[in-house]
Amino acid sequence: MFHSNTPVRSTQKDQLYPFYDAIVIGAGIAGLICGTFLAKTGKKVLIVEQHSIPGGYCTSFKRKGFNFDAAVHHIGGCGRWSVVGRCLRILGIEMDFSCLDPMDNLIFPDFSIEIPADLERYILGLQDRYPPEKDRIKSFFQDYTKLYRATFHNEKSQILETYKNITYGDMLNRYFENDELKTILSGQWGYIGLPPSQASAIAMCQMMVNYLKDGAYFPSGGTQGFANAIFKKFIDFGGHVMLSSEAIKIHLNGTAVNGITLRGGKEISSGLLVSNIDARKTFLELLEGEMDPSFLKKIHGMRRSCSFFLLYLGLGGDADVSNLKRGFYHQATNSNSLDREWMYISVPTRICPDLAPLNKKIISVVVSINEETYEDVTNWDSFKEHMTRVILNRLEEYVPNIQKYIEVKEAATPKTLERYTSNTKGAAYGWAVTVDQMWDNRLPHESPIKNLYLAGHWTRPGPGIAAVVSSGWSVANLIIENWRQTI
Ligand SMILES: Cc1cc2nc3c(=O)[nH]c(=O)nc-3n(C[C@H](O)[C@H](O)[C@H](O)COP(=O)(O)OP(=O)(O)OC[C@H]3O[C@@H](n4cnc5c(N)ncnc54)[C@H](O)[C@@H]3O)c2cc1C
What we know:
- With 487 residues, this protein is α/β, with parallel strands linked by helices.
- It is built from 17 helices and 21 strands.
- 37% of the residues lie in helices and 20% in strands.
- The structure holds flavin-adenine dinucleotide.
- The site of flavin-adenine dinucleotide (FAD) has 38 residues, from helix 1, strand 16, helix 16 and helix 17.
């Protein structure tokens, strides 16, 4: 089994080819999946990554023997027949996962509920809780799964017509009047980074159906283990990789791409590029040469997703974390709005004790940072201290005397996320998942520049690991089909 501590290395400089059939910029999960499918065909493929490790947001770091997941907490769609499971099987990647059941907990000030890792059980639980809504609950989830299938298979269908232009909040209002039920069904909006009043119905459905149908999965050894396993398969297929290598220019030969320049000046040639990085940077900063002005205008007008503040705690063995559940802790609100603020807490050592030294524990906390909050911050160090204090005060309610047990305390702000991944202002999910930026409105995989493709959460279908696996895979299929036709 390939674990996060297996060393990952760049290809030796003297082994690099003068010309590649394809270069992938960015070793996020979409870039790794796309590159691995391309390398599997026997073509010469290079991945360049600015960081010293692969994975993008799906990476881990170590402090004093504690192994913290930097961003991703769990992955949807890992069942044998779901998108990630199928993709790994086709690539021949062996991975051990723990299936999380319950999938999540939603903790509201006046009640809490477990979300089981099985849709039928979830539906029955909701029907028991809200008997007058029994039939509507059934038809809501039928539509939800139908909509997911239609988007996944890219089918023209009535269900897509019905929901493609409405928000998730509108979708809930079409079905239900019961506010508590709608609050529960909105309780996991943090996974797409926009509250129900603004998020597209398709975005919520794409993120949630995998989780609800076959659960959330935690990769053995932490989320870095997931990235490393794909990375290793890419190398096994003969792929080349340059870590700690930032692409700073994309060159054009007339209207088609013909290579990149890395920071430091090294130029590498290829007639085909896949950008797994921030789309705004791809077109506004890296690309040299003329671009269609209407496309550039569109990019300028697009809105990025929220970012997060993260607190990572390593606790001594005597800390009692038994009162903490994994899931969303929602704040009280005076209104009936479904857009409640939340804090997400997980205790990964409960799933995988060897992430910490013997008997010790890890707690990680995520808080959403929207655009306005980001712009208001003038001093990020003070912001970090303030947020850490606020979160520790809240944790104290569940873990008495928590301060006494802290052995490691690390925090990440949107600035940290940006530093490690170059997603503008630490955008967690690429473009925001508003109605006008999802489905047909999200940037397509093929760009206006010949042989420049996009893979990852800045393109279709959207954010989250299951979606970017699908994105990288779709782009590889497009490219392989083009290669076949030009033989
Ligand atoms: C805090 C947080 C928690 C999350 N939790 C979850 C979760 O639990 N489950 C889930 O499914 N999703 C989660 N997400 C969302 C998910 O992580 C992302 O949608 C997904 O990982 C994006 O993958 P990607 O391949 O598109 O790109 P990224 O992960 O953004 O990777 C892009 C890569 O490109 C590299 N790069 C950038 N610029 C350059 C350049 N110029 N040259 C070379 N390399 C470059 C970066 O270093 C990076 O490695 C979370 C996101 C955040 C921020």
